[in-house]
Oxidoreductase molybdopterin-binding domain-containing protein
Amino acid sequence: MRRASHGRFAWFFLACLLAFGLHAAEPSPSLRVVVDGKATVFDRTALAALPQAKLTAAVHDEKPAEWSGVALAELLRRAGALDKPLRGKGLALFVRVTATDHYQAVFALAELDPSIGGKTVLLADARDGQSLATDGPFRLVVPDDKRAARWVRGIVSIEVVDGTAQ
Ligand SMILES: Nc1nc2c(c(=O)[nH]1)N[C@H]1C(S)=C(S)[C@@H](COP(=O)(O)O)O[C@H]1N2
Ligand SMILES: [Mo]
């Protein structure tokens, strides 16, 4: 009798340990930003520490929503790109955004450089004050594009790629 209840306790203890271990091992949603081959990982906490931006925009004919997050140019700056106006070979750099479903879209880094294109591209983590669910945790919002094709959902990485060719 005694032994049985000890046994049950041991199983319960092991189950708790396993549940805790699995929970601790579950990665917090994050994205990789790669500049000059160097990766910086941003999770929600790291992104929340960057200057926050908001804008109102709609996908297709949907009701406009308020999107909030971090300007893509600012994120790239924190990861080591766009620290100064692009010149020379920098004008052939591009930014490749990759999603969980392997969807990919690119922007010229010059499009995003505030001294050149100054295009508004937001890395959003919330819509109307709510965290993004299936579209997230991070997606792009590109209000000046005519179609929402580059509003990449479920972003896993953002890489600055050298597009120069001889
Ligand atoms: N990861 C991922 N993002 C994506 C797509 C996709 O297939 N996969 N489709 C794009 C296209 S073509 C459009 S029009 C918008 C649609 O955004 P919505 O799902 O919020 O309507 O998402 C864009 N982002
Ligand atoms: Mo689309």
Notes: Strands lie at 30-35, 38-43, 53-57, 65-71, 93-99, 104-108, 122-127, 130-131, 139-141, 155-162.
